[in-house]
Structure formats: structure tokens, C-alpha cells
Amino acid sequence: MTDTKTWARVKSPWVLHFNSGACNGCDIEIVALLTPKYDVERFGVKLEPSPRHADVLLVTGCVTQQCAERLKSIYDQMPQPKFVVAIGACACSGGVFEGNYNVVGGVDKVIPVTAYIPGCPPRPEAILDGVVKLLNALNPPKPKKQPKQEKPKEIAKPEVVAQSAQPGS
Amino acid sequence: MSNNNVNMIDIIKSKFGDKVQIQMGLLGAAAITASNGLHREILKAMIAADGKTGITAITGLDLGATIGVYYHVHTSNVFVTIKTEVPKENPKIQTIVDIHPGAVFHELEVADLLGVVFEGHPTPGHFVLSENWPQGVFPLRKDVKANEVKMVPTPSSEENKNLENSRLVKIIIGPQHPALLEPEKFAVTVDGETVTNVEPRIGYVHRGIEKATETRTYLQDVYLVERICGICNACHAYGFVGAVEKIMKLDVPPRAKYLRVIALELNRLHSHLLTLGHAGLEIGYESVFQYFWRDREPIMDLVELTSGNRVYGSLMTVGGVRRDIKDTDMPKIRSILKDLRGKLPFYRQIYENEPTLKLRMKDVGVLSRDDAIKLSVVGPVARGSGVDIDVRKDDPHEAYGEIPFKEIVYSSGDVWARMNVRMDEVEESINIIDYALDHMPSGPFRIDVPRSVPVGEAIHRLEAPRGELFYYVRSNGTDMPDRVKVRTPTFANIPSFLKSAIGESIADVPANFVSLDPCFSCTDR
């Protein structure tokens, strides 16, 4: 049963996108992921409008004062187990807006974050890489037969999963 | 243009005589210093003399003992600033909303961020700031430090409780909603299926960028204002750089002017393709969305080729641009643009002939020409309603004065017209880039500039993809600006949605809304 659950989770993660005060840069790159060139749906990733049906929450933006409360309530509405991916420099740490009067700065100040994808904005390839790494983390290759770990706590340790390739300028 | 310029200012001179001070060539064609109350009379006289007069922006700024309230006014061919000041202890000024309804949002913003009281215009609650923002603290005043403000507990929301015993239903769209990419709230009141009222609540993306520019150097600010918007980023960077260059009285090399035009037009191209596709998504025509976004990717590749990054190219800098286009890259740019041009007839045919698309777009969200002028609407929304405003023609910046192109105007004022304006502008943008590549002057693409900027103030206007983008920069002689004000096109266009949605079906709200090409990260800053 656990195997089936993990299989379903890894093969078709439904993601919810929430903009917590982003500049649209990361958001447009997420939408670009769904379109023919990158086509993230081939990994079974589906953009889901309701938090109640979502497995993964993709958060962009530096978390403004107004959005902090909403972000928390959206996270609370998601069923367990749930994962949060912070996309972009702002979501990771506040980015250029760190220290501004209306900015909380960083998604992890409000809700626990599973994976961080830095970049301003991260390229679609980097986001794709981050999502795939998250999925692999849910279903790690196992040397011995043993029950899978499915609580988010086990993988909740923040780590940078993808580096955005920024060509020199 | 110059004749009419003189006319409008002569009218003001003859009418108000010694009561006003007029300085030419500052903040538009002229800066008119007037007392509280007189600004209403000047605006009335200007509207009577020119039917296209409207408010571009209202800048509030902390001048020490007083608070300055600057009204930036455009007419069909001249741009002026009316300067007024109010004492800080009692910051009251008479409203202009009754003269020009397009000023509603501008006054609300100045009231929220600087605490100016507009007499005759009630400004209940916060407009941009969060509900938990403390009362009586105004972030853009100089004595408020950005990181020392203590938030207060959020008061409970009363907004859904006033519709008891009524047949009206309030539908809250946002802040998290499938139809919105960005967090913003619209409370739509419906009677059956008909929309009777729309109340916006903006400010979810308010990051306090205008205040943040005051604590960073000019060079850092270029990167900061660029991040106001991830779509029209080159336009924001250029708006700021343009204003700073005016204060410094810099002349940019001709090659930089052409390179800037190419960057701005690439911005417009990918933004318009994005919107044309997004409109398909909102009306349930997903193939259109996928097609447009497929063809947007080569343009993103071009942005990367010319600037070094897909989204934030950071091409603009004070004194020119940061990198040149190599001659070896020219054929690739031309061939990608040629491909896109070849695909346009197919898209035009979809927009013109597809019955489902026409049903959802024709005669939906109609905005009349008069309303468009009264509400100071800009960009493709105004041009879809038959108002021929385009800063590239009216006040040519950079090389636009030398490049031939058509100003696209449709007269029906519905969603369909606005989308077709964008469709035609895609073709014009390709023409402009082609022309710029063919006529690219040789020479340097940037000049060295000092780090600090002399004391002064300047405005800069440019045509961003969504309409006129307005920058006001005030310098105090150091390497950091004293005040930066940004008026973005969506901020000017939202009142038109509040007007045109009323009386229509709730099902038409998404199509109507997306036809503005709303960008809230711009709106809130």
C-alpha cells in the first residue's frame, strides 16, 4: 500500500502555485514550464487550482505582509503529506527586497520549505531540475527491502537542489 | 507640437497671471507652482481648453517641513506638472476627483503612503498597505525607517457581512485564485449573473520599492526598479535611467539609442505574445494559449542572446547599455523574427474568424472613448477605445523619432479590439526591430558617468507594453536618489475595468480583466 501511494505521488504530483508578492518573473517561468517547449506534464506534474487537492506548493515572491497570512492558510488547507518548493531568490531569502517595510522576506519564515530553487528568476530548466530532484527524494533508490519513508519530516532538511545557470553578462 | 505647447501654457499664464509661477522645461514642458485650491482651477482650465487632458500621476513627496503634492497632467500634446505643497502637521488638500475621475487611485495611494488628506474624497482604510500596518505611520515620510515599523494585530474583516437580507451576492476573487497569476482581491457583487459592483483591494504585491530606492545608490537602483516587473523589466530600468540621464543632462551615444529600442521592443513582443495566449486560457481556448507560448520561447531566446539572460537582462545602465549586439548575431535575430512574422497571419485568422473566440470577445467589456479619456486610460486599452495615445509618437524617446511605424488604433472598445491592437503591435514591433538592425549607427554603446547625480528633478515617460510608464526622480546631489515615483500602466487601467465590468455577466469578468493585461507587481510596486 505504501508503495502504491509513493508511486502515485511520484508519478503525478499535483502542484499549486502561489505568488506571495513576486515580480512575475518566476511566475511566468513556471507557466512557461507547462507550455510545449518544456512540457512538465510529461512527468505527470499538473497545475492544480485548489490547495485541497495539491501535493506540492510552489511559492514565488518575497512574502509581503499581506500575503504571509494567506500563505499560511493555503499551506494549512493542503492535505498531508505536503511539500513546499521556494522558487527564486526572493522566496529563498527575500532577495533584493530584503529589509523593505512591507516584506517578511523568505518563505521559510512563514511555512516549512522542502526545497529551494535560487535564481532571479531560475531558468525553466532549473525549476524542472528542482521538481525532479524533489520527486527522486520522495522515492529514493533502496538497497534493502524496507518500508518507504513518507513523512515530510524525513526530507524536510532544507537543501539547495538546483543551481540556476546564469550565463555571464 | 511646440506651438500648441506655448498655447496651453499661455492660456494658464493669461488666466492666472501672478498667482502661479511657471518654470519652463522642468518636469515636462513646464512646472507650475500653485497654492492649494488653485490647482483645481488650473486643471479645470486645462480640461476646458483640451478635451484629452488627464492625470498621469500624482507624486507625493516629503520636503522636510511640508509635503509636496505634484500633479502630472497630460493633454493631447503637452505634459506639465502642477506643484502644490501642504504643511506636514495638517496635510489637507482639495480633491480633484470631482473634476477628473481618473485621479481616484492616485489620491488613494498618496493618502495611504504619505498621509495626505484629500478633502472631499473619503479614503477609508488602507489602499496599498497591509491591514496590520499601524495607523498614523506613513512609510514614504523621511522620518519612518523601513525596518523599524511594528505591525499591529489584523482587525477582523467585516466586508462579507453587509449583504444580509439582500438578493445581491458578493463573490470574492483572490488573493489566491486560478484565474489570477498574482495575489490580488476583487469583490464582485452580482445580482443573479449580472455584475453590479466591483471593489478592488490591491497591495498584495506591495514591496515598498519606492522607499527602498532611497537607501540604495543609483547603480543599485537600476537593478532594483528592474525587479518591479518580471515582464516589462527593460522598460522599468529604462524609465529610471532615462530620468537620471535627464537630471545629469547626458547625451547617450546613437548606437545605445538603437540598442535600447531593440531591447524595449523585444520586451513588448514577448509581453504581447504572453497576453494574447493568456487571453485564450481565460476564455477556455487552451490551444491558443499553447500556440502563443510556444512562439514566445524563440523571443525569450532572443532576449537571452542580446542581453545575456532570459528574463532580467539588465541591459540598461546610466549612460547607455551594458552590452552590444554582435554583427554575427544579426542573422539569427532576423531569422527568428522572420519566423514569427510568418506565423502571424494564422493567429490573425484565429482572432478574426474563430466563432467561439469572437463570441467571448466581441462586444464584451466595452469602454467608450469618452470614458477612456475621463479615466486617463493608457496603452492598448486606450488605443482599443479609439484614443490615439502612444508615447513613442507623442513624446518620442530614444530613437523612436527616427523610426517609421504605425500607431495602431481600433474604435470598438471591446476585448476583441484590445487584443487586436496587441496583435497588430506585434507586427509593428518586428518592423521596428528590423529597421533598427538595418540602420544601426556605429560607435560606442555607453559613456562613462560620475556616480553622484547633481541636485534636480526630472520625469521620464515611455511606452511600455501595457501603456505609458512614468518615472519621477528627485536627486539631492548624493549618490542616492531623494525620491523615485513610478506610475505603472496597469495602475492607470484598473479603473476602466471597474467601469466596464458593471452590467455584464460574471462569466465575462475573466476575459474583460485579462484584456487589460493586468500586472499587479507593477501596480503595487
Q: What can be said about this structure in brief?
A:
The complex is a heterodimer of chains A (169) and B (525). Chain A has 169 residues and is of the alpha/beta class. Chain A has helices at 2-11, 25-34, 65-77, 89-93, 124-138, 152-155, and strands spanning 14-19, 46-47, 56-60, 83-87, 115-117, 159-160.
Would you mind describing this structure in some detail?
The complex is a heterodimer of chains A (169) and B (525). Chain A is an alpha/beta fold and 169 residues long. Chain A has one domain: Rossmann fold, CATH 3.40.50.12280. In chain A, 34% of the residues lie in helices and 14% in strands. Chain A has a six-stranded parallel sheet. In chain A, strand 4, helix 4 and strand 5 form a beta-alpha-beta unit. In chain A, helix 2 crosses helix 5. Chain A is globular. Chain B has 525 residues and is of the alpha+beta class. Chain B folds into two domains: 143 residues, NADH:ubiquinone oxidoreductase Nqo5 subunit (Beta Polymerase, domain 2, 2-Layer Sandwich), CATH 3.30.460; 294 residues, Cytochrome-c3 Hydrogenase, chain B. In chain B, 41% of the residues lie in helices and 17% in strands. Chain B contains 17 helices and 15 strands. In chain B, the strands form five sheets. A five-stranded mixed sheet of chain B has the order 1-2-5-4-3. In chain B, strands 8-9-10 form a three-stranded antiparallel sheet, with no helix packed on it. The mean pLDDT of chain B is 83. Chains A and B meet through strand 1, helix 2 and helix 3 of A and helix 4 and helix 8 of B.
Task: For this entry, give a set of tags.
heterodimer; A: Rossmann fold; 6 strands; 34% helix; 14% strand; B: alpha+beta; Beta Polymerase, domain 2; Cytochrome-c3 Hydrogenase, chain B
